[in-house]
């Protein structure tokens, strides 16, 4: 804490510093990495570097993202996790090239999630974990390309069906939410346990070992189907001695 009880200003990022933080990813994209720099306010100077493909502002102390974030028109990857962000600007919906958005570990609530998030039509990975969200907007179900969604460690009582049943969803992490029942989370996970790929071929197109294996498995299934349950056998107590005089005389009744 600075003198006088004021919050620290944080590190100032200049354009020169920002330029030196640009890295080239393994697939040839330009990433501006300003993570773990103690930044408290969004550095306006980086708007001059708005042609980068990826922007990492994670693990800082940001509370607000400006409307001008949509100036990064080439952005496909945005990491804002582990800040103190309380609200997202509506203009984030203009970043329609985004495929990755990490908002984990902030101070977001249901009200601070703009409806414009549903405009991120090619988004594949969305992380909203470790926030204060008690309700997910059903409009997120319009993001048909989503494959991974994280909403763990929030205040959720339910997951909208429009999200749980997204057609390409492979992973839905909703752990540690106050769901009403112990099997609530399992219920939503079951929605995404679906067949991903099915190949149908004719027998003539299979090699002999593969054909033989398929036939053996089919024979096993048929054998199980055709196996009738064995009738219950009445127990035979022929070796038992006759009951004593205080018991019933009839062996079967006894």
From TrEMBL:
GO terms for cellular component: cytoplasm. Residues 225-254 are annotated as: Disordered. It is found in: Cytoplasm. Keywords: Cytoplasm, Leucine-rich repeat, Repeat. Pfam families: LRR_14. InterPro entries: Leu-rich_rpt, Leu-rich_rpt_typical-subtyp, LRR_dom_sf, LRR_domain-containing, LRR_R13L4/SHOC2-like. The keyword Iron does not apply. This is Leucine-rich repeat-containing protein 18.
